[in-house]
Write a structure and sequence with these properties.
The chain is α/β, with parallel strands linked by helices. The chain folds into two domains: 37 residues; 160 residues, Nitrile Hydratase, Chain A. The chain is 44% helix and 11% strand. It contains ten helices and four strands, in the order ααααααββαααββα. It has a two-stranded parallel ribbon. A two-stranded parallel sheet has the order 2-3. Helix 4 packs across helix 5, helix 5 packs across helix 6 and helix 8 crosses helix 9. The termini are far apart. The structure holds fe (iii) ion (FE). Fe (iii) ion binds next to loops.
């Protein structure tokens, strides 16, 4: 084992793939497919789910019940991924997602996590001082509003369904999707009308 660890990361990865294939856990094709799906994933996919949930009550219910199935329903490949839970923000409760242990993230839906999601500072402060952390993202949570911090794990990933911004009553589903940013689905920010008015995100 020590000679494997002394080599570079790519060789370690090759050795791991060799073992997975040898034991019949995953084929080369399956690994390649998963890598391609993960590389292609991006926050726009989650934004499409959010926008659809805002305009389609049946989809919203399905999404809150089973996020992975709701993702699959609009063509986001979830095969082989851990379950996806969806946390709905309401006037009473705001949700914030963190992986306190490492960087567990719904990559199949949102793509690779932002760099700060993996940082020790984010992981610690999300638990110790979530309101202070959110304030640094420009997100002020009223003192009487409940703030729930949810730990994403290797076995269960989470995303946030933010509240639909006021003033978007006449917006189309694709316009709504363009308002939703990566951080809105982690809970560090909330979507606002500004993107529709042409302001840079
Ligand atoms: Fe993790």
């Amino acid at each position: 084992m020590s000679d494997i660890l002394e080599t570079g990361g790519e060789q370690l990865l090759a050795a791991l793939r060799h073992v997975l294939e040898g034991k019949g856990i995953a084929t080369t094709d399956e690994i390649q497919e998963r890598m391609a799906v993960t590389d292609a994933a991006n926050p726009g996919q989650g934004a499409r789910m959010v926008a659809k949930a805002w305009v389609d009550p049946a989809y919203r219910r399905a999404m809150l019940q089973d996020g992975a199935a709701a993702a699959e329903a609009i063509g986001i490949p979830m095969r082989g991924m851990p379950p996806l839970g969806v946390l709905e923000n309401t006037p009473e409760t705001h949700h914030l997602v963190v992986c306190t242990l490492c960087s567990c993230y719904p990559r199949a839906v949102l793509g690779y996590p932002p760099f700060w999601f993996k940082s020790a500072a984010y992981r610690a402060r999300a638990v110790r001082d979530p309101r202070g952390l959110l304030a640094e993202f420009g997100t002020l949570i009223a003192p009487d509003r409940k703030l729930r911090v949810i730990d994403s794990t290797a076995d269960y990933r989470w995303m946030v369904l933010p509240m639909r911004p006021a003033g978007t009553e006449g917006s189309s589903e694709s316009e709504l999707a363009s308002l939703v940013r990566e951080g809105d689905m982690i809970g560090v920010t909330v979507p606002a009308m500004r993107a529709l008015q042409g302001e840079k995100r």
